[in-house]
Write a structure and sequence with these properties.
The protein is mainly alpha-helical. The chain is about 20% helix and about 5% strand.
Amino acid sequence: CYEIGLGYYGDVCCSSIDGRGDDEGETIPVTPRPTTAAPSKSPTTNAPTPSPSVRPTQAPTPSPSQSPTKSSNNDCTQCSNEPTPWMIGASKTCAAWPQTADRCSSAYWKNKQFCAQTCAEKGLAYEGTNCCLDAPRPTTAVPSKSPTSKAPTLKPSPQPSMVPTTNVPTPSPSVRPTQAPTPSPSQSPTKSSNNDCTQCSNEPTPWMIGASKTCAAWPQTADRCSSAYWKNKQFCAQTCAEKGLAYEGTNCCDEDETPTPDNDSNSGSCIVCSDTPSSWMTKNGHTCATWKGLKSKCGPNGQTPSFIQNKFCQQSCYDRFDPPIAYVDGDGNEEICCET
């Protein structure tokens, strides 16, 4: 026990080593290993460790916010919100026009970066832009535990009433018609004798003004009178009324006017557009003027960049849709097609 450092207290043991001294063995004193002092009666450390804290030293992280926090990115810029030339002529703004989001993916719009701010706010930002966005709309608070209305709606009566709810019954039907039957319709429209009629405006669209078209002479006026865009702006109201397509809420007086023929179809800033179908359309027997699928190539249902870049069915794409779909030239300017 001594040799392995566990000697008894106060004893110093000697060690006998074979092979040293005489044959009997020689007793050689061995320097004892130092032992520890007497055990201390108290802990050797200055003070015991403190008791554990009652609560965490740091507050927990707050709950996530109900609405996304506004980005603090100082690198964003206030993008331009410039509309197209057609939109300016038609008094359309990027933020208010319902078709802005549909046009944000147009190659023509991306190239010119029309309505860049509005497109970014609708999640259709142009590549390479970082438009500053408005603060997000606040989300609803935690759902209420009770209905928000002050009182529930009245329950239906348990039994139907025995008498009618109207004050008096309707009178007995008349024995004979009170008015004579209407005469046969006239072969031509009769002139209104209503003294309350007004002389309606006959203002053409911005495009018609640029192409030197008049409401009375343009052959396609009657086709456009039912357009929501025309009704909203009340373009050519007088001519539409004379063609039996009066706008709701108007009472235009009739006028005896002789339409002035439009002899110069290429006047103004319009150009003579081609109406060449694609090779696929020709192979499948489709024409630009009658093919129903045209609206998905250059109409309100979408625009195919390759179809427009090759200027397939340019004239029909311009004539058949409202607002008209204008192709662009090599400089990026809209091409207004003349009446064919």
